[in-house]
Design goal:
alpha+beta; Lipocalin; eight-stranded antiparallel β-barrel; 3 helices; 8 strands; disordered N terminus
Length: 103
């Protein structure tokens, strides 16, 4: 019974994510099976974002609906992701696959 209540509480917290809950600075966790390349992703509360890989930087807009995270590129692309926990995101990055980010 306690496990069921705990699962429901976690589902409610993650299911009710808003921009304010998700906004922050995130760092990728070992993309490409441990290569040293790190991605720093900043999600601002106003829906703007910044993606940094080394010295290169890209800007985008973003939205969150429950656990679904979307990053909208300037060229019209959309990267899909999930809010796994308040400080843990997963984003499907073309050419890299699923990349995990921690706040």
């Amino acid at each position: 019974m306690k496990t069921l209540l705990w699962s429901l509480a976690v589902a409610l917290v993650v299911g009710c994510s808003s921009r304010m809950d998700v906004a922050g600075r995130y760092t990728s966790q070992s993309p490409h099976g441990g290569e040293s390349v790190r991605i720093v992703m900043t999600l601002a509360p106003d829906g703007t974002g910044k993606w940094q890989v080394g010295m290169e930087e890209s800007v985008f807009s973003w939205s969150v609906d429950g656990e679904r995270l979307r990053l909208y590129t300037r060229r019209g692309g959309v990267l899909e992701g999930r809010v796994i926990a308040p400080d843990f995101l997963r984003v499907d990055v073309p050419g890299w696959g699923m990349v995990e980010f921690r706040r």
